[in-house]
Amino acid sequence: MLLSLHILKIEPGQYRAHVIDGREELGTFDTISISAAIREAGGQALPDLSGYHVWYEHVCAGTCTPSNMRIDPEGLAQRLMALHGQFKS
After folding, report:
1. Which position has the higher pLDDT, 88 or 53?
2. CA 83, CA 4: separation in Å to the nearest integer?
3. Helix, strand, coil proportions of the chain in percent (round to 5)?
4. Measured distance CA(33)–CA(13) in Å, rounded
């Protein structure tokens, strides 16, 4: 199973993450950073979960395994921020 993690910036230091399966929202949680959202989602033990499509607002870092999300959430967050800066909406 592949889920989507969609992270939105509410204000500086406040982010809301949505975990989505297709069109169904499975859960929402708030964090203090993009990397914290990635780390938290990657730490969820769900049966048959292969990975996440990781989004920050309108850009996607690609499909990541939960183990990579736990190992290097800061690297994924930096990649998302770099992409976000290239494609400002």
Report:
1. 53
2. 17
3. 35, 45, 25
4. 6
Give the single-character DSSP code of 32.
S
CA distance 13 to 30: 10
* Element containing residue 27 per DSSP (H, E): strand 24-31
Statement: the pTM of the whole predicted model exceeds 0.85? yes
Phi, psi of 45 (to 5 degrees): -90, 95
- β-bridge partners, 31: 15
* Closest to 77 in 3D by CA, of 22, 32, 28, 47: 32
- Asked if residue 12 lies in contact with residue 34, where contact means CB atoms within 8 angstroms, the answer is no
Alpha helices in 1-89, H assignment, sequence order: 34-42, 66-71, 73-86
pLDDT in tens, 2-60: 999 999 999 999 999 999 999 999 999 999 999 999 999 999 877 899 999 999 999 99
